[in-house]
Amino acid sequence: MKATGWEQEEELRGASALCNLFANFLNTKISVGDAEYATGLMEALEGLWASSARQEDSALGAAEASMDESLLAAAKAAMAADAVAAQERLAVERTRYVRGLRAGNSVKPPFESLYLTENDSLEEIASVAGAYRVAGFQLTEELLNRPDSLATELSFLAQLFGEAAQEVSRDDIEAAHALCQEAGKFTRNHLGKWGPSYCEQAAEATDSELFRLAMILMGDFIKSLTEEEEGKGKTNCN
């Protein structure tokens, strides 16, 4: 059944919100000594899980092929046992696997050129930056990463989906469709090629239950965006 304009707008806003959720998780400085961040993140991830179960065909529903109930249960148990310790472990593991600042780390930091080229190619970075320029995407102070970082690429998609939602709200379906096509092309040529692999490796290697849950959900969400290109995705502008 063809989605209504309102449904399309809601799906696009949901996709944009999820992109921002995961981009902010990768970028936000996590403090130690309290549990405020971990508590908020746990609530968001649990809400995403519940939404996935209720709305299988929605943009808010990440593909759950990699997930089982034990992942969610383990994260909730860690928070219940000692939320402050869980946040500290989350901060350490996020630094380890996102910033790549620990010697001997077997998982490469989340930069596209490290996954798609053999020598951290500047050409790959330039290709990503070129896509940003065409779309008018500006790197902000909050995005302190390289253009080809996972956080920056998710922020870019968040902007495209958000702009597409605005166009739908103005009944400009043609403009919204063009933005969705741009998001699909970027996912196909860039993020979808490497993002799920990084998330899977980081989830397998970490000893933080909350970080593992975030990585699995993030990887499955990126997969769902990739499936959009194959006609099986959750975000529809047609």
From TrEMBL:
Keywords: Chaperone
InterPro entries the record matches: DMSO/NO3_reduct_chaperone, TorD-like_sf, TorD/DmsD_chaperones
One Pfam family this sequence matches: Nitrate_red_del
SUPFAM superfamilies membership: TorD-like (SSF89155)
Gene3D superfamilies: TorD-like
Record-given protein name: Molecular chaperone TorD
